[in-house]
Design goal:
There is one protein chain. By secondary structure, the protein is α/β, with parallel strands linked by helices. It folds into 2 domains: 2-72 and 371-410, Urease, subunit C, domain 1, CATH 2.30.40; 74-361, TIM Barrel (Alpha-Beta Barrel), CATH 3.20.20.140. It is built from 15 helices and 16 strands. It has helices at 88-95, 100-105, 110-118, 122-138, 154-170, 193-211, 228-240, 257-263, 277-283, 294-300, 307-312, 333-344, 348-355, 357-361, 391-394, and strands spanning 2-12, 32-41, 44-50, 61-64, 69-72, 74-76, 141-147, 175-182, 216-221, 244-249, 268-271, 289-292, 318-319, 380-383, 401-406, 409-410. The strands form 2 sheets. Strands 1, 2, 3, 4, 5, 14, 15 and 16 form an 8-stranded mixed sheet that branches. Bound molecules: N-(iminomethyl)-L-glutamic acid and fe (iii) ion. Residues 109-110, 113, 220, 248, 251, 296, 322, 324-327 line the site of N-(iminomethyl)-L-glutamic acid.
């Protein structure tokens, strides 16, 4: 099956030579080809170049992309999109002045979602989550990571991870699973944090490893939740069970979690709204990707990750949605890219790099997706006619995606 896109106004994020990620000043470079063609064969990117060099061979299908652009589909490396119900009541409480911490102290927050999830069957949870996957694909996402962490018990954590496994089987996009049992201390372990963590390590992790239910391990390293020491305990145990760290750190306070993440070779450290100079130093020269979640900062009205300062220090940045019912109830990567430009002062080039190749790296998928590179999966998005790729963040409220292709097939 040969599919040719011709007359593409601009083919964006073209990497002849495969790269793992871009960092620092290099994030300003976004290679493109104007007036381009893209050839997809059997679901993969076969070739691309200028229209004057378009291959003269028989195609099964030709799409005329005059006036339109093609980008690699978004790579969303941090979501909690498997959840039950919603938290609209808390949303209204927040409008009336309660903070995220105050809501959590009243039994809202993560524990509220855990209670709802415990009362939801696996099939129902699967249906609710499938709807969200379908929504994000239609919004241009072509690879996603999903966390557990609203289970907070052996049974419910496994229920979440099994739902993620079923989503992997049903949908044609790469999905990575992360075990986030250490998201909060459940009601039945209040005052016994150590007991809860031990249960996660001794009872849940062996099953996850045996049934291959997750690739990554996560923990909410934050004042009032889990300490840097707890983080080291979980990451150490995760390592022994073959789980690579991707962790929640520095959302509200800096308590040493970044350093622990680096020590355990975390694939990513995520949130980073509060960054000290020492935190930035700790990430320099490492293989750990810093991930910013501007949808969360927007929704909670908390500081944005200081990405300009971090990129000036030579660090890479990835962008993700944090899609979850409490702090970022949106899986729209277009909005994330726009918010990164408008509020965090990333340029469109930096934001698109952060939402594609760097996001792919933060899920271990940089060889498969995240750029227009020969041999990669043809998970791409075709825009409506637009002036330039800067339209994507500029026209922040418009849907500029005409079609999403997964493995070279139209998403219907
Ligand atoms: O990434 N910060 C911790 N976890 C989620 C929010 C969870 C929730 O409020 O349900 C986050 O923001
Ligand atoms: Fe999160």
């Amino acid at each position: 099956m040969k599919l040719l896109f011709k007359n593409i106004k601009e083919l964006v994020q073209v990497r002849d030579q495969p790269i793992d990620f871009v960092a620092g000043e290099k994030m300003q470079e976004l290679p493109t080809i104007k007036n381009a063609f893209l050839l997809v064969e059997n679901g993969s990117i076969k070739d691309f170049g200028r229209m004057q060099d378009v291959p003269d061979e028989k195609m099964d299908r030709v799409v005329d992309a005059t006036g339109k652009m093609i980008l690699p589909a978004w790579c969303d490396s941090h979501t909690h999109l498997v959840y039950a119900g919603h938290r609209e009541g808390e949303f209204v409480d927040k409008i009336k002045g309660l903070s995220y911490e105050e809501i959590a102290k009243r039994g809202g927050g993560i524990l509220n979602s855990a209670q709802k999830l415990a009362q939801t069957t696996e099939d129902d949870l699967f249906q609710q989550s499938a709807q969200r996957i379908e929504e994000i694909i239609s919004l241009g996402t072509g690879a996603v990571e999903i966390k557990s962490g609203y289970g907070l018990s052996l049974e419910s954590e496994l229920k979440m991870l099994r739902v993620i496994q079923r989503l992997k089987q049903k949908y044609d996009i790469p999905i990575k699973a992360t075990f986030l049992g250490a998201h909060a201390i459940p009601a039945d372990y209040q005052g016994n944090k150590k007991g809860y963590l031990t249960m996660l390590v001794e009872e849940v992790m062996p099953i996850i490893a045996q049934e291959k239910l997750a690739e990554y391990v996560d923990i909410f390293c934050e004042s009032g939740y889990f300490s840097a020491e707890d983080t080291a305990y979980i990451l150490d145990a995760g390592q022994k069970h073959g789980l690579i760290p991707k962790i929640h750190v520095n959302q509200f306070t800096s308590i040493g979690g970044v350093q622990v993440g680096v020590r355990y070779k975390a694939l990513s450290v995520d949130h980073l709204e509060v960054m000290t100079d020492a935190d930035i130093q700790a990430l320099k020269g490492t293989t750990t990707m810093p991930v910013a979640l501007p949808g969360c900062s927007y929704f909670l009205s908390i500081p944005y990750t200081p990405v300009r300062k971090m990129m000036a220090a030579g660090l890479p940045i990835a962008l993700a949605t944090d899609f979850n019912p409490g702090s970022s109830p949106s899986g729209n990567m277009n909005f994330v890219v726009a918010t990164a430009c408008i509020k965090m002062k990333m340029t469109p080039e930096e934001a698109i790099n952060a939402a594609t190749i760097n996001g792919a790296y933060a899920m271990g998928l940089e060889k498969e997706v995240g750029s227009i590179t020969r041999g990669k999966r043809a998970n791409i998005l075709l825009t409506k006619p637009i002036h330039s790729y800067a339209s994507i963040p500029y026209l922040f409220g418009s849907n500029l995606i005409e079609q999403v292709y997964l493995n070279g097939l139209e998403n219907v």
